[in-house]
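This protein record is not my work; I was only asked to verify it. Take the sequence as given and treat only the tokens as open to question. I have pasted the whole thing underneath without changing anything:
***
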Amino acid sequence: MRKPFNILKMSHVKLKLKRLFRITYVIIFLGLSNICPIYSASIYAQTTRLSVNLSQVSIKDVIRFVEQKSEYVFFYSGDVYSELEQNVTVNAKSKTIDEILTSVLKNTDLTYTLNDRQVIINHQKETQQSKK
């Protein structure tokens, strides 16, 4: 003989499925909300373009100019400070921050690390030692 269909048992299963779907939606939403800021931060460095036309100014002045015209913030220690007094000429039209900094720092013993919207300037020796 067949068992009678129990409507209460079926509604209990529906409630469990609804709860499972809600939990899944929350997990997906939280996962995407954590990924999107990371993705947008890396996009900023690749898509932000600056035009810099400065002649015979110190590297510090170039850094100040970039900070004023963009959302980048520069950090450097006191031992790097003396090398930032070196005069450079920058003529960059619609270039990324990587291209500008590479051209500005090419004749120095300095290198940079780009971390989101923060730029850290170090001696090349310090950067190589920290990677080891």
About this structure: Helices lie at 7-47, 59-69, 78-81, 97-105, 124-131.
